[in-house]
Amino acid sequence: xxxxxxILMCEPGYFSVDYVINPWMRDQTGKVDHxxxxxxxxxxxxxxxxxxxxxxxxxxxxxxDMVFTANAGLVLGGKVIVSRFRARxxxxxxxxxxxxxAENGYVIADWPADVxxxxxxxxxxxxxxxxxxxxxxxxxxxxAAALVEKVLGCKTxxxxxxxxxxxxxxxxxxxxxxxxxxYYPGAFSAVSQTKIRALVPAGRRIEVSEADAVQxxxxxxxxxxxxxxxxxxxxxxxxxxxxxxxxxxxPLTEFMKSGGxxxxxxxxxxxx
Length: 272
Hints:
The chain has about 270 residues and is an alpha/beta fold. It has 8 helices and 15 strands. The model has no long low-confidence stretch (mean pLDDT about 95).
């Protein structure tokens, strides 16, 4: 099955906060409003469905975070690295994800069991240069970037995450069409901030404030010139519009209780 400009999603049929594996989940166990979560997910699905082809993996009981398909794996050119989760609670997702990718014709890359890597949550294709930004520090191992480069043949740039609130790269960095980059500098080590500034011209960097970052403004989905996100301040919306983008806000508050928003709920199966 060849996927062109498609996004993989998973209905939140079993979504809940049943354990704590990131700071957002603290004090949220059992507090998800499931009907509201379903409405918020459906609204995101409807918005995306007007912009891009959507495909779906079925939800499974016992794996409430499977709704966050960004962590299913990393797909590039019909080949997929299926995630090796750090948290025991999420490792149960792996067989379902392997099965979906195999059934849909993807080549599943060999990946060592002892290297933790959480897919497109920690690996984002730049939209201006042929390279992958790869995050490490909380969920993916520092060795993942070099191994991804070897397995997929795409240049990688490793970025160290230092703020536990931004435990995945996609919570604090979003490559945008035309080589723009939306990111929260405070999530990264000083060395990694230097790497970003060296590789992305100042005129293409949109730095997000902490206030916007904790509303997961960087956890956005960019399709063409549209950017779908949970929240953006008027100032950030103005900056995005000046850069030629159209922000589309859709509340995803129930999913933020588990540490995810728009990007976490989607996996791009192809980039153009």
